[in-house]
């Protein structure tokens, strides 16, 4: 088993911690002891909730004002073309570029990855006219490296707005991080991800299993 217990007799609660498995699926969590339990960990695997994904999608909805704002923006892009697809791009850089996080094992894609991902997406979508909407914590880098005519870079905004917009796109291209992962999962279209998000032979790599983290059918590309 890959978890351990902490006991709090006064309140009759037991705390169960996930150990060294930030993205690994641990089946034993489906066979927990009875009683009051607190689960502590990331549990960032689609396998934990695949059997109730319809329920999660119903629960994970955005406020009406936020949805209206998002749909107004998407409609403005869609009306430019017929047979149109909107693809969200999320690139997280910021803290991932800090030396301590690189040492920990986070990988950050360069512009070549996004060029390949956009080209692959256009090929997969065939004759559709494609617009790419980019959300990022590094707008300057995006402006310098994602300058395709089909790219529209979103201004800085509330994370909730960016998540709602990306989740409402037809398809997704992501770099790394749970923000982009959840946007792609909620969008529920074609997803292209950066294969080297977790660098090999690092601390994070020891608790990482790509088959538990990325859904079947998601497409991995490198730089």
From TrEMBL:
One of its GO terms (molecular function) is galactoside 2-alpha-L-fucosyltransferase activity. Pathway: Protein modification; protein glycosylation. Coiled coil: none annotated. InterPro entries: Glyco_trans_11 (IPR002516). One of its GO terms (cellular component) is Golgi cisterna membrane. It is found in: Golgi apparatus, Golgi stack membrane. Its EC number is 2.4.1.-. One of its GO terms (biological process) is carbohydrate metabolic process. It is an enzyme of class 2 (transferase). It is a single-pass type II membrane protein. Keywords: Glycoprotein, Glycosyltransferase, Golgi apparatus, Signal-anchor, Transferase, Transmembrane. Belongs to the glycosyltransferase 11 family. This is L-Fucosyltransferase.
């Amino acid at each position: 088993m890959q978890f351990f217990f902490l006991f709090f007799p006064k309140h009759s609660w037991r705390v169960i911690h996930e150990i060294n498995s930030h993205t690994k699926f641990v089946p034993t969590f489906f066979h927990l002891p009875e009683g009051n339990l607190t689960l502590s960990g990331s549990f960032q695997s689609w396998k934990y909730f695949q059997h109730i994904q319809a329920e999660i999608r119903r629960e994970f909805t955005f406020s009406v004002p936020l949805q209206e704002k998002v749909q107004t923006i998407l409609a403005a892009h869609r009306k430019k073309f017929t047979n149109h697809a909107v693809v969200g791009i999320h690139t997280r850089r910021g803290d991932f570029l800090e030396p301590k996080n690189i040492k920990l094992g986070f990988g950050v894609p360069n512009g070549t990855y996004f060029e390949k991902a956009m080209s692959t997406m256009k090929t997969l979508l065939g004759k559709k006219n494609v617009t790419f909407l980019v959300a990022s914590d590094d707008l300057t880098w995006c402006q310098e490296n994602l300058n395709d005519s089909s790219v529209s870079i979103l201004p800085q905004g509330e994370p909730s707005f960016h998540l709602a917009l990306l989740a409402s796109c037809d398809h997704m291209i992501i770099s790394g991080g749970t923000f982009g992962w959840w946007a792609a999962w909620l969008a529920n279209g074609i997803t292209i991800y950066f294969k080297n998000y977790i660098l090999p032979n690092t601390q994070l790599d020891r608790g990482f299993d790509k088959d538990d983290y990325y859904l079947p059918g998601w497409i991995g590309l490198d730089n």
